[in-house]
Automatic annotation (TrEMBL):
<comment type="similarity">
    <text>Belongs to the PTH2 family.</text>
</comment>
<dbReference type="Pfam" id="PF01981">
    <property type="entry name" value="PTH2"/>
</dbReference>
<dbReference type="InterPro" id="IPR023476">
    <property type="entry name" value="Pep_tRNA_hydro_II_dom_sf"/>
</dbReference>
<keyword id="KW-0378">Hydrolase</keyword>
<comment type="function">
    <text>The natural substrate for this enzyme may be peptidyl-tRNAs which drop off the ribosome during protein synthesis.</text>
</comment>
<protein>
    <recommendedName>
        <fullName>Peptidyl-tRNA hydrolase</fullName>
        <ecNumber>3.1.1.29</ecNumber>
    </recommendedName>
</protein>
<dbReference type="GO" id="GO:0005829">
    <property type="term" value="C:cytosol"/>
</dbReference>
<dbReference type="GO" id="GO:0004045">
    <property type="term" value="F:peptidyl-tRNA hydrolase activity"/>
</dbReference>
<dbReference type="InterPro" id="IPR002833">
    <property type="entry name" value="PTH2"/>
</dbReference>
Amino acid sequence: MIRYLISDSMKQVMIVRTDLKMRKGKIAAQCCHGSIGAYKKSPADKVRKWENEAYAKVILKVQTLEELTALKKVADEKGIANYLVVDAGRTQIPTSSVTVLALGPDEDDIIDEVTGDLKLL
């Protein structure tokens, strides 16, 4: 479980599907796509605060698409900026595979409401 004591700290979280068996480089690329996608959708005030703190990023994991889409639904309900990465299928995995859900940046405690029970990748 990922929890922080300082409630006004900011972070961005990428959640990776492990059932796709992506290699490390593929995971890194997918997380980069997610990070940029969620960043572009985030409110400017949250981006500025995150940029002033050190750009904290955390990579977590889920085992299935169903888990990932359930987390996206919760993030949407809570108003957390998010981005679902859908792969083009040029390398390791089939076209249109959903690989990563990126959240934020947002306050740690807000993101933890969605991801607090997940494990680090």
